[in-house]
Amino acid sequence: MTLMPLYAKAKRTFFFLFLGSLSSCLEFGEDFELKGVEITGKELQDVSAKTGIEFPQGTESVGYCSQGSGIDRSLVFQAVIPEDQKEEFLKNDIFTLGDDSKFDNHFAKHLDWWKVDELTERIDRKIELPKAKYLECTVGLEDGKIHAYVTWFEI
């Protein structure tokens, strides 16, 4: 028996042990999509906790999609903001500190409720958060109501 096959076998075993221990250290969640009344206060709190965006009383959730099973977690969220709360909503840090630029929401385009391209009177913002996390938010009119589209992801 030569040392080379034994070395290759040990190397391969070490590699799989390393992968197993690495994946056990990573925090994985689940992937899910919720619409309308399926979205509870728990999900709205989750969006606020991750993004730092405070949603005013009376916010109506439209859609929420979380991708937590991969290494790079992400979420997309859409809500209707009460018209009398728009100015208060625009006081969130993303609108006061964020860059004025449209975002690339490529991972949300497949969702039937994601209609950000149809908004009029848009305000687009993007900001980098600590620990390689990114936040994007667009607010505008859709069907005569104020809609907010939020994406958050980490790399």
Detailed description of the structure:
There is one protein chain. The longest helix has 23 residues, at 3-25. The model is unreliable at 14-27 (pLDDT under 50). This protein has helices spanning 3-25, 41-51, 86-89, 93-97; strands at residues 31-35, 60-67, 74-81, 120-129, 133-142, 145-154. The chain is an alpha+beta fold and 155 residues long. A hairpin with a 3-residue loop joins β4 (120-129) and β5 (133-142). The termini are far apart. It has one domain. It contains four helices and six strands, in the order αβαββααβββ. A six-stranded antiparallel sheet has the order 1-2-3-6-5-4.
Give the total of beta strands.
6
Biggest pleated-sheet summary = 6 strands, antiparallel
Number of helices: 4
Query: Strand order, biggest sheet?
Result: 1-2-3-6-5-4
User: What is the number of independent domains?
Assistant: 1
Q: What is the topological layout?
A:
Elements: H1 3-25, E1 31-35, H2 41-51, E2 60-67, E3 74-81, H3 86-89, H4 93-97, E4 120-129, E5 133-142, E6 145-154
Keywords:
single chain; 155 residues; alpha+beta; 6 strands; 28% helix
Compact overview of the structure:
With 155 residues, the chain is of the alpha+beta class. Helices cover 28% and strands 33% of the residues. The termini are far apart.
